[in-house]
Amino acid sequence: MFYNKALDSFLEEAGDISRFTAKFFREFLKPRYEFSEFLRQCFYIGYKSFGLVAVTAFIMGLVITIQSRPTLVEFGAEAWLPKMVSISLIREIAPVITALICAGKIGSGIGAELGSMRVTEQIDAMEVSGTNPFKFLVVTRVTACITMVPILAVLAIAVSLYGAYLGCNIHGVVSWKLFWNQVFETNTFSDVVPAVTKTFFFGLDIGIIGCFKGYFSKKGTEGVGRSANSAVVISSLLIFVLDLVAVQIADLLGFT
Amino acid sequence: MSEKPILEIKNLYKWFGENHVLTDFSLDLHKGESIAVLGKSGSGKSVLIKCVIGLMQPDKGSINVFDLNVPDLNDQELDKIRVRIGFLFQSNALYDSMTVRENLEFPLRRHWLDTKKQSVDELVMEALENVGLKETVDMMPSELSGGMRKRISIARTLILKPDIILYDEPTTGLDPITGKEISRLMVDVQKKYNTSSLIISHDLNCVNIAADKVVMLIEGRNYAEGTLEELKKIDDKKVKQFFE
Ligand SMILES: Nc1ncnc2c1ncn2[C@@H]1O[C@H](COP(=O)(O)OP(=O)(O)OP(=O)(O)O)[C@@H](O)[C@H]1O
Ligand SMILES: [Mg+2]
To answer: Which residue range is the domain that position B23 belongs to?
Structure first.
């Protein structure tokens, strides 16, 4: 009745991704853990993205502080600047920026890497030599994303707050101590927990989508490019959707 | 030969939608024997050996290896027979993020626990010596030439000392001299480890050097078989094409 080809393929892909995710959890629990490969991936992800995440977070902290200042000055609430800025940085901006950067950098990397391994039959070669390629390639990468994205997000929060501190000091003078005092006064445990919790899901999203797109890459170099590209697009979009869901859940649970 | 073949393909069918690639293909491979499957590009040679190793599922027919029917096996059982079957990919399929050493160690991983580091090193070196490329052990695949990559790929196939080796076009893309060297290498390997091999090829030189018997894969089936000399005498247009 309401048959629509685009909707159909969308649902089909959503189903495939869910099945892929379920397979990830199943394989994750099965023994023969590829621990050294997991560590290698963690190192790789952290090493590859830390610089970019730090620079972006720093600039975000700085810029948002500078931008927010005039409005607060208008209300005579300039003293609230650290409080206000730190809330938005911790709860929203730093985690989401980190996830988006990781989606662009790690997600596309995984998509392209697995895609070219699929195309050049390296994944088949693993299977033939008796190593489960899903476990060796997908499980390690996804768990590494789940581990590293939250760590990077925490680092991003710290760096962006430092940026905010410098931003506060461009016009007025806010001492180091006063700044952190204000930050920790407003941001309590119930602000940090949901902010960090959602980054685990961002990590899962980035890893799963990157691996899914690469693992089932179409033949040819074009297929590899498309895998990398759609890995970024879909996982970025999903980050916002997950963010929206996370806000609602945090709200329901009373983390406000 | 009266003894039971170690690889027996019977009435194999495989099609992709409307594209009927294999239709009623049969073949027997005995211990120590080396058979070449000759067929033109796109005739389904790669599909055939991918079915043998369980990377593709045939639509009909049986593939008996060591008395097990491959299409019926589950993952664990497949893993067990795969250890005894070497597979040389048409594209080499070397892991390009790993060094040559790591590439060769990869098939040994599943035996990691019961092989000592030292004997792993010995196995790697032995395999590299067989293909005459000991000095490349710490290089990356991207630093090697096409012929060297093919040799490394053969070394990786050999490292578990398989009973059967499936070669997918071992000499395509190589110059005639290197192609001959690779073919001789295949013969040496076969003699040294008494393996059986199934060689997919359309390179007559290679077939001439490395195979005892030739099977023509035409129209998805075993169109003719015999030694190269016997086939050359057959008066059939489709067979003759190959020898012009
Ligand atoms: N995964 C697949 N999906 C659909 N069709 C396929 C697939 N793999 C192979 N085919 C089709 O099967 C046929 C045989 O392909 P195959 O790769 O076996 O050829 P080949 O004999 O190995 O040729 P070449 O000498 O060029 O390697 C081709 O027509 C190809 O289009
Ligand atoms: Mg082929």
So the answer is: 7-84+162-243
